[in-house]
Amino acid sequence: LISLYVSTISRALIAKNPRVMLSVFDRAQKPIVSAMQTWANREIEAMHLDQTLRRVVIDALFSIGICKVALATPAESGAVAWNLKAGEPFAERIDLDDFVYDMHCRDFNETGFIGHRYRVPLDIVKDMKVYGKGRKKLEPTVDRMYNADGDERISLLGRSIYAGDSEDFEDFVDLWEVYIPRHRVVITMADDQYYGASSDDEPLRIQHWLGPDSGPYHILGYGLVPGNAMPKSPIQDLMDLHEATNNA
Q1: pTM of the model
Q2: What single DSSP character describes residue 143?
Q3: Which residues contact 67 (CB under 8 A, 6 or more apart)?
Q4: Measuring CA to CA, which residue among 194, 198, 112, 200 is closest to residue 148?
Q5: Whole-angstrom distance between the N-terminal and C-terminal Cα of the chain?
Q6: Cβ–Cβ < 8 Å for 163, 172
Q7: pLDDT of residue 33 exceeding 80
Q8: Which of 53, 129, 137, 248 has a CA-to-CA distance to 199 between 20 and 30 Å?
Q9: Helix 49-62 to helix 234-247 angle, to the nearest 10 degrees?
């Protein structure tokens, strides 16, 4: 029953790639705006935005949908086999397991920091001079089965505990990227720096945020909870109906 609900609602919310229509009052700017509209619609299809948005919608049906929209860093470009060039715009789904934000905020507009964890090839980070000198000290990170608090990562469902500690195809490293809205900066740090286990206090990279005031992270939630930033999902209300139907 839950599967039927998700497949039906997700198709209704995201059926295909969105399209943009741009206009301008100044006639002299119309050729430029028309070219921008053509580029945007072509880029949306090239990045398969519909697939990303569909995953964000399904995440929001179960918990919360998180989408990052920004310009690709060298590490993010290398993580997708260079199919995304560094500096190009992209939209990426962020898993709840990898999401971090200011727990004291009552709304995501009030958050003091917001960010995510991502896993990239180690050699790319070490070779890129956009990252600080600390990149030379980075060591391969094991693809852990559990988060720092001891809860299982959702990716464990696909690889099971038997393949949980097996080595990667190549050396990877876990990085954290945190956006500070008040200072409009994006900080990149290693996993041990984030958890405070490293004596090196200098992050790998600090860059000024180039983009809209809303920042790189866009949140999708269907059920608001008073006084809380984290929303309630529709599946939480449907679980009793799902279980009652199957029991009958």
Answers
A1: 0.84
A2: -
A3: 52, 53, 56, 91, 92, 93, 94, 217, 218, 220
A4: 194
A5: 13
A6: no
A7: yes
A8: 129
A9: 70
